[in-house]
Amino acid sequence: MTIAAPSPPPDIRSLTEADLEARLRQLDEKPYRAKQVLDWLYKQRVASWDAMTNLPKALREKLAAAFSLRPLELVRRQGARDTTQKFLWKLTDGAMIESVLIPANPSLYGEASDRHTLCISTQVGCAYGCRFCASGLDGWKRNLKPEEILDQVLAVERWNDSQPDAAETPAERLINNLVIMGMGEPMANYDNLMRALRTLNAPWGVGIGARKITISTSGVVPRIKQLADEPEQFRLAISLHGATDEVRDKIMPVNRKYPLKDLTEACDYYVEKKGRMITLEYILLDGINDDPAIHAEPLIELAQRLQAKVNLIPYNKVEGLPWERPQEERCIRFADTLREKDVTTTLRLEKGHDIDAACGQLRLKTEKELATNSAS
Ligand code: SAH
Ligand code: SF4
Questions:
Q1: Under CATH, what is the fold of the domain 12-66?
Q2: Which candidate, 32, 47, 237, 349, has a CA 20 to 30 Å from the CA of 128?
Q3: Which residues carry out catalysis?
């Protein structure tokens, strides 16, 4: 007979405030201890039990026996401190994920008052296989757990706190805007994502406003409707990239399952239920979806129908894939065509694409390097 190895205890950050209070009661502890623990985890963002210095040692030992608390491990960081920075994390099973820290950039999902936006991952790899994307190149490995999703925020802040020029007691948090646009399809890991987002949003947790959290999806229709029915006002962005089935079928396999008609209906439902504007993301791919005479019109129609704004993103080249970004003038002309029809449009043309490249690429590069190193 084989005896299964005991499974590790749950990570404490997978619990809600109510869950934690209930567990502490079972451990014969006073409920007010929950507040102290949550404060250490989410306000002080400590990464060990020993750092929770106002808790009696016996309680810390009980907590350590009942729960895991394993922070993300920083493997690699790219980018200067006042620019966009990429963080590559190793998970406890050795898998790697990325987060991207973007300084205040009002034209990109944020407002002038935003301090930093963090782009976070929800899966290791991605099963959706959009033809242009680095995240899906090696397929899907696994879903991130709630604590792995939310620790990306805490770990970046911990890293920032550890820098020599960090303030002694930070007056405000580094990150006050989140975009769920890293590796993976967030809607395919819906329950874990919601659990993480509720902790990131809660006053007892990280305290980031729901309106400061944008979830991006390639178009998983049933989950868009489910999100519309949630009580929170999270923002929604649709990775459209084509406003006809012809274009979307070519570059996004998800469109075969949920064609534009279904996607548009789900967006209608979301807008109606939430009374909130959605964003349509549109990567400009040379020769595929960037002809103002052909591709702008259906996009204008869709944006007008949904009263959505459009975020145009010139494609970031992915090594090994055949797609190219159009010339800058062509991108500008496409944007102007939308603006002439009063569609609110942003076009990102900033420099520094090597760092700024979409999520999934640093992981891919590092995994390739590690494979080469271990082979030699
Ligand atoms: N799976 C979700 C969220 C992660 S992808 C989604 O698809 O929406 C985040 C965004 O980056 C998506 O709009 C995606 O289409 C875009 N993206 C992927 N690869 C890109 C690249 N090489 N250049 C520019 N944007 C890219
Ligand atoms: Fe997955 Fe989004 Fe990349 Fe498509 S664009 S493969 S859904 S991460």
A1: DNA polymerase; domain 1 (1.10.150)
A2: 349
A3: 98, 359
Determine the atom of ligand 1 nearest the C-alpha atom of 184.
1
Q: With contact defined as beta carbons under 8 Å apart, do 75 and 96 qualify?
A: yes
C-alpha closest to that of 354 among 148, 49, 86: 86
CATH value of 73-375 in 3.40.50.300, 3.20.20.70, 3.40.50.2300, 1.10.3720.10: 3.20.20.70
Distance CA 129, CA 151 (A): 26
CB 220 within 8 A of CB 214: no
Ligand 1, pocket residues at CB < 6 Å: 130, 132-133, 181, 185-186, 216-218, 239, 281, 283, 313, 315-316, 318, 358
Ligand 1, atom 9, residue with closest C-alpha? 181
Q: Which of 100, 149, 267, 283 to mutate to test the pocket of ligand 1 (most atoms within 8 A of CB)?
A: 283
Predicted confidence (pLDDT) per residue in 233-277, tens digit: 999 999 999 999 999 999 999 999 999 999 999 999 999 999 999
What lies within 8 Å, CB to CB, of 47 at 6+ separation is 69, 71, 154, 158
Side-chain-side CA neighbours of residue 181 (13 Å): 23
* pLDDT category of residue 373 using cuts at 50, 70 and 90: low
Alpha-carbon distance 71 to 196, whole Å? Answer: 15
User: Of 244, 249, 256, nearest to 291 (Cα)?
Assistant: 244
pLDDT at 321: 93
- Tokens 């929770």 sit at which residue? 52
Helix (H) or strand (E) holding 88: strand 85-90
Q: Please name the residue whose Cα sits nearest to atom 4 of ligand 2.
A: 130
Looking at ligand 2, which atom is closest to the CA of residue 184?
Answer: 8
Element (H, E) at 251: helix 245-251
